Amino acid sequence: MIGRIAGRIDYRATDHVLIDVRGVGYLVYCSERTLSSMPGVGEHVALYTDLLVREDILQLFGFTTLVEKEWHRLLMSVQGVGAKASLAILGALGPDGVGRAIALGDWNSVTAAKGIGAKTGQRVVNELKDKAPSVMAMGAAPAPVLDDAEDEVIERAPRVAAPVPAGVPNRGAQAEALSALTNLGYSPGEAASAVARAAGEAQDAATPELIRLSLKLLAPKG
């Protein structure tokens, strides 16, 4: 399975790019958000990839981070969500937006994606709410770009979470808060929802503050 690809962009289309890897061109389909973040024709790019295998087709889908790739795989596990719909959701919300919508049970945000109706949005939230915490806790470092001498296709994607780059919200604190809440007995879905809301209210909060705010949100009302 092709898990990562790096090379020169030969051309760009509305939903895919052609990447030249040592003379071999790979068509890679991406979300609008991913395409907009990529460099121009002639520049080098690196993407994590997922290979879709069917009887009549082989398609590569590209992602700038492992988090985005993992959300794509999970979204496609939901009934009624194929590759095109998954890319539409990721293009509309981005990986962080998908995680936040699912953690908060906000299925209406999912319907912002083209072609996604209310029933599908509800299924996405209901079926993935307990899987969201582990993905939200992953790092989001982009795939490193290699030069011409190092262009390569790696047959297996890395399994470990990458370091958190500068400018990304405090994922470390969120991951630690999620772990703490689940250790206290809260379900993954409850914990993810509370931490997502707390992080939205206090984006720079350290772990203790996130835990405190999350517990306050989880406290019985009345």
TrEMBL record:
Alphabetical keyword list: ATP-binding, Cytoplasm, DNA damage, DNA recombination, DNA repair, DNA-binding, Helicase, Hydrolase, Nucleotide-binding
GO biological process per UniProt: DNA recombination; DNA repair
One cellular component term from this protein's GO annotations in UniProt: Holliday junction resolvase complex
One GO molecular-function entry: ATP binding
A Pfam family matched in the record: RuvA_C
SUPFAM superfamilies listed in its UniProt record: DNA helicase RuvA subunit, C-terminal domain, Nucleic acid-binding proteins, RuvA domain 2-like
Domain I: annotated span: 1-64
Subcellular location field: Cytoplasm
Domain DNA helicase Holliday junction RuvA type, first and last residues per copy: 1-62
Region of interest (Domain II), residue spans: 65-142
NCBIfam families the record matches: ruvA
Domain remark text: Has three domains with a flexible linker between the domains II and III and assumes an 'L' shape. Domain III is highly mobile and contacts RuvB.
Role summary: The RuvA-RuvB-RuvC complex processes Holliday junction (HJ) DNA during genetic recombination and DNA repair, while the RuvA-RuvB complex plays an important role in the rescue of blocked DNA replication forks via replication fork reversal (RFR). RuvA specifically binds to HJ cruciform DNA, conferring on it an open structure. The RuvB hexamer acts as an ATP-dependent pump, pulling dsDNA into and through the RuvAB complex. HJ branch migration allows RuvC to scan DNA until it finds its consensus sequence, where it cleaves and resolves the cruciform DNA.
Family assignment from sequence similarity: Belongs to the RuvA family.
Subunit record text: Homotetramer. Forms an RuvA(8)-RuvB(12)-Holliday junction (HJ) complex. HJ DNA is sandwiched between 2 RuvA tetramers; dsDNA enters through RuvA and exits via RuvB. An RuvB hexamer assembles on each DNA strand where it exits the tetramer. Each RuvB hexamer is contacted by two RuvA subunits (via domain III) on 2 adjacent RuvB subunits; this complex drives branch migration. In the full resolvosome a probable DNA-RuvA(4)-RuvB(12)-RuvC(2) complex forms which resolves the HJ.
Protein name: Holliday junction branch migration complex subunit RuvA
Classification of source organism: Bacteria, Pseudomonadati, Pseudomonadota, Alphaproteobacteria, Rhodobacterales
